[in-house]
Design goal:
It contains seven helices and five strands; from the N terminus they run βαβαβαβααβαα. By secondary structure, the protein is α/β, with parallel strands linked by helices. A five-stranded parallel β-sheet has the order 3-2-1-4-5, sandwiched between helices. It is globular and about 50 Å long.
Amino acid sequence: MDVQQKKKAVVLLSGGLDSATAMAMAQAEGFEIHAMSFNYGQRHAVELECAAEQAAQMAVEHRVVEIDLRAFGGSALTDDIDVPKHEDVEELSSDIPVTYVPARNTVFLSYALAWAEVLHANDIFVGVNALDYSGYPDCRPEFIAAFEAVANLATVAGVSGHKLTVHAPLIDLSKAEIIKRGLDLGVDYAKTTSCYDPAPDGRACGHCDSCLLRKKGFREIGEVDPRGYV
């Protein structure tokens, strides 16, 4: 397919394992990728370095948007709240953890929607997952469907009959299945980070919810996680 004929898609790229896989899947489907990351005051800002490396490796446009969710706090990622640590994934609670950032995915998708309108892109990709995840309410299929409905009500494209689609290709996959899919697509997971509380040198703590779920995924498919841990 001629590059000029490719459909454009905005991909939310955090620098983590899931979003890198979602971007690879979008590219494999033939989309012209426009990646968007956020410097939102997160304590794990090393993920932005990973996002830049991923975008460069895949030769896609990449923009970093500056917003400050620390203005509201309320999360261990944006406030003076300790990130919970555990020894084993079995210790994770079913309650919504303090690492949940209020309205984060709603905010991020809104920015992605604005850029999609400017690009005349009808597709947005987000790497949310409803199986091996930390219980965040904005990672559920119901949320994605609701936001897509809002997008088609709130945009010129939507009301003009050009349907906007929010793709969540990982929504029903386990972490192991996500990693397997990414490896098949050539994702370099050494250029991803999942840790909520990394060391100053960028190495993962190995004990936060996200680290434990990531390690579980690699372990289940018999692969070694290439990202360094403390």
